[in-house]
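call fold target=Catalase
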Amino acid sequence: MPNPLQYNKRFDELNEEEKKLLDINKKTIADFVEQSSSISDVNYATRNAHAKTYAVAKGTFCIKPNIPEFLKPFLDKEKFDLTIRFSNAQLTIQNSKKDIPAYGFAVQIRDENGGLLANYPLVNFPLFPVNSVSTFLKLFTAVNKFYIKKWSNLFTLFVQATKMIPSLLTGDMIRNIIKFIGKRNYFILSFDYYSIGAYRLGDHIIKIKLHPKSVDKHTGVKENVKDSLTHYLQTHDFTADVMIQICYNLKDQPINKLNVEWKNSPFITIGEVRIHKGSLLDSRSCTNELLSFNPFESKIFFQPVGKIQKLREEAYRVSVQTRRKINKLLHGKGG
């Protein structure tokens, strides 16, 4: 096996134009979150993405005893406590019977003293449709403005969305879209979940995959997602393999090209996520709504890697700070 590529901060660095576009984007994020309660017609400020919570649960990350030697300094216990949030990727909360099947499986890992080790927001699609930082920031800014100003920003949104099309035309992207369409009616817990971008594991760089075990993909076909998920977690144990890929070279495992799959890096199973039946928390409580799964709050040797990931650091920070400020005021009033 070749030697893993070492982490270098140059993988994350933005140029001056990208930094300016990021400042503009951060302003629209704050504006969106400030108006999010009226946008989604709820009595609290929502997240700027994955606004809709389906469920929050306690779980356990159990480490395999025979993991590779280099992993042991980071996974030095038999098990770790988890808080898990299941969500929908849309920016707004809609009460439609049928949601777009873009799901989130956000995992928060804590040590035996309750200290935060890592946050991993995983999603049920392995790739990201934009590689250009500038294109992504202009698109995200246009999306935020559209929700705030509605039709007056529709043309700008359309123009920015068309610039994304070339990134959607890779073989890996087309193949995964077709596969995803075929699974669109599957149960939320039957999907694999992915980190999309790369993360540090010490000086190594990895991607993460969560592969559920023994979950019937046709579970709850006549129920909405929230009800089927809640019922399942009340009556079943859930188990999923935790797998990683390691970056050995940028040609086969590119860090800043997120619309292609990593090649020539086999998945290594390092443990299991377990949720025992009856481990649901109250997803509507103020405490759980204030939860943050910002991966940049993780210990430094677990944090995200890459330019698109770097954008998420600032986006998460602005979104979380604005949301917490508003919701704590509401909480103080009994909200």
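return ok
The radius of gyration is 20 Å. Residues 9-332 form a domain with the Catalase HpII,  Chain A, domain 1 fold (CATH 2.40.180.10).
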